[in-house]
Every structure is written in structure tokens, then in C-alpha cells.
Amino acid sequence: MADPFRVRVAVRGYELDTQGHLNQAVYLQYAEHARWECLRAAGVAQERLLAGGVGPVALEVTVRYLRELRGGDEVDVTCEFHWGEGKTFRIVQEFTRADGTPVASVAGVGGLLDLTTRRLVAEPRERFRALAGDPAPMGL
User: Fold this and answer.
1) CA 115, CA 108: separation in Å to the nearest integer?
2) C-alpha–C-alpha distance, residues 90 and 81, integer Å
3) Strand 5-10 relative to strand 119-120: parallel, antiparallel, unpaired?
4) Is residue 74 within 8 Å of 103, Cβ to Cβ?
5) Which pLDDT belongs to residue 42?
């Protein structure tokens, strides 16, 4: 099995909370950034999704915090799609310091929304595969 897609992010000072560590909400922003970068690496830019009349949606997200991140730290954020049957899929994301220390994990359930009907697409894996220039980063 191939390594999951990953992107490195540097923690910026304005993202810190009053305790001096990364604000909890920013973990979700980093996870979102990694998901969009994964889609982009697969050739599924936002413009391509919109032109196809669809958009990804988060249906459930769970964050597990393991260690703190502080200003100046660098963190690798993975993005791994787990495809099943039906209208939803799972995304697992691991946050790891540059030295390999696990920091957090984000697990979620997503779907692909038809922007006209406002309903989930029946087979999101197939729709993403059709939109992707290189489906490998998405595990397709």
C-alpha cells in the first residue's frame, strides 16, 4: 500500500492560543488544507468540482489531540481516503511533527454534494475518479 498523501505546515504565531500552543480550531484548518491539497494533487481543483456541479462536504469530524504544537513547529498532515459503498467515505488524517512525534489525528466522514439537487452523490468514488487527472493521491 502506498504512503498516504502528506503536506507540511509551519505553525504561525497568530494561530496560538493564550497557553502558547496551536488553537484547537486550527487543527481543523490544517486538516482541511491537507484535504484540498490532496484533491489538487489528484487534479481535482475547486474549479473542476464546481464545473462538475459537485462539492465535498464534511458530515462528521473527530479530533484527537496527543501533544501540543507551538509556534515555529512544523507538522506533517496526511490525508487518506477510505472508500466504501454508498454515499459516504471516510478520511483519516494524522498530524506528525517533523521529528516523527505523533501530535493529533482527525477522522471524518465525508460526502460529495450535488450542488443542484443539494443531495449527496450516490457513488462519490466514481465521480471523483472521473474528475481526477491522477486519482492515486485519493486512493482511487
Assistant:
1) 21
2) 6
3) unpaired
4) no
5) 97
Strands 74-83 and 88-97: antiparallel
Cα-based angle 129, 135, 136 (whole degrees, multiple of 5): 145
DSSP letter for 11, please.
P
pLDDT single digits (tens) 33-68: 999 999 999 999 999 999 999 999 999 999 999 999
Three-state secondary structure readout of 33-62: HHHHHHHHHCCCCHHHHHHCCEEEEEEEEE
Number of C-beta neighbours around residue 118 at 10 A: 7
Which residue's entry shows cell 471524518? Answer: 108
pLDDT tens-digit profile of 123-133?
A: 999 999 999 99
Is 114 known to be catalytic? no
Catalytic residue among 17, 73, 76, 114: 17
